[in-house]
């Protein structure tokens, strides 16, 4: 039993990503979409929080949203996996429930 | 033993009441959803805890004060309002700052019981993990 969490807000504008990280269970997945993808970059004020959780929770980021914002794969934190829209659907199917952190 | 076809629904409230429409819309959906006889819980965390504070008065800002509506939820068999302790503390609040919300327990001679349950962040994570459907606001 696991949950797919989505975060669609910039971690520099809201607490959504940090609150999500504080409520996930081991084995859950966090998918960063829309402005949430800024949380996937290395060398930011939230990188440590994301990297610190990446051992117990799998992080994904939506490729088209990265590209739209000009964030290259080379800037991503290690362990964050890029998925396309089909991958998004796959994650939704793999998990028992989805929770959006708006 | 849960009746067949009944699912556990959790409505997650993370927004303060009047700055955006999320909180009011969540309450509207809860009231509509109550018609479907599901196992409903509400979660209040982050700024969502501000929705339940007492003495709200919107006369001066020209929007509806919907906080009294929470006290009607018991009549719709919505009587599990989980509030995260850490979110309260981070905002300088305690349970005493929240309005009293009660329901009548039909299994206990209609005794009045509190609907608000203060839980820890870890318990909130467990609660979320225990649901069939999560609706976020």
Describe the structure.
The complex is a heterodimer of chains A (102) and B (137). Chain A has 102 residues and is an alpha/beta fold. Chain A is built from 4 helices and 5 strands, in the order βαβαβαβαβ. Chain A has a single domain (3-101), classed as DsrEFH-like (Hypothetical Protein Ychn, Chain: A), CATH 3.40.1260.10. Chain A has helices at residues 16-21, 47-53, 63-68, 85-94; strands at 3-7, 29-32, 58-62, 81-83, 97-101. Chain A has a 5-stranded parallel beta sheet with strand order 4-3-2-1-5. In chain A, strand 3 (58-62), helix 3 and strand 4 form a beta-alpha-beta unit. The two termini of chain A are 23 Å apart. With 137 residues, chain B is an alpha/beta fold. Chain B has a single domain (8-136), classed as DsrEFH-like (Hypothetical Protein Ychn, Chain: A, 3-Layer(aba) Sandwich), CATH 3.40.1260.10. Chain B is 20% helix and 23% strand. Chain B has 3 helices and 7 strands, in the order E-H-E-E-H-E-E-E-H-E. Chain B has helices at 22-33, 85-90, 121-129, and strands at 8-13, 39-44, 81-84, 102-105, 111-114, 116-119, 133-136. In chain B, the strands form 2 sheets. Chain B has a 5-stranded parallel beta sheet with strand order 6-3-2-1-7. A two-stranded antiparallel sheet of chain B has the order 4-5. The longest helix of chain B has 12 residues, at 22-33. Chain B is globular, with a radius of gyration of 15 Å. The interface between A and B is medium-sized, with 15 and 18 residues.
């Amino acid at each position: 039993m696991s949950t797919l969490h989505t975060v669609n807000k910039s971690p520099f504008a809201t607490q959504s990503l940090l609150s999500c990280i504080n409520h996930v269970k081991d084995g859950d997945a966090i998918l960063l979409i829309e402005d949430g993808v800024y949380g996937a970059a290395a060398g930011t004020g939230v990188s440590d929080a994301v990297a610190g959780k990446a051992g117990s929770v799998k992080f994904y980021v939506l490729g088209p949203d990265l590209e739209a914002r000009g964030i290259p794969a080379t800037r991503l934190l290690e362990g964050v996996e890029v998925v396309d829209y089909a991958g998004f659907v796959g994650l939704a199917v793999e998990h028992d429930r989805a929770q959006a952190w708006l | 033993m849960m009746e067949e076809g009944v699912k556990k629904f959790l409505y997650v409230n993370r927004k303060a009441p009047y700055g955006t429409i999320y909180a009011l819309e969540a309450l509207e959906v809860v009231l509509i959803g109550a018609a479907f006889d599901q196992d409903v819980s509400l979660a209040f965390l982050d700024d969502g805890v501000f929705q339940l504070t007492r003495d709200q008065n919107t006369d001066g800002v020209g929007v509806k004060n919907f906080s009294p509506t929470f006290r009607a939820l018991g009549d719709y068999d919505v009587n599990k309002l989980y509030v995260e302790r850490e979110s309260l503390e981070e905002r300088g609040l305690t349970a005493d700052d929240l309005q009293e919300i009660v329901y009548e327990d039909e299994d206990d001679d209609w005794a009045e019981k509190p609907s608000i349950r203060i839980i820890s962040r870890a318990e909130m994570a467990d609660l979320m993990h225990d649901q069939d459907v999560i609706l976020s606001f």
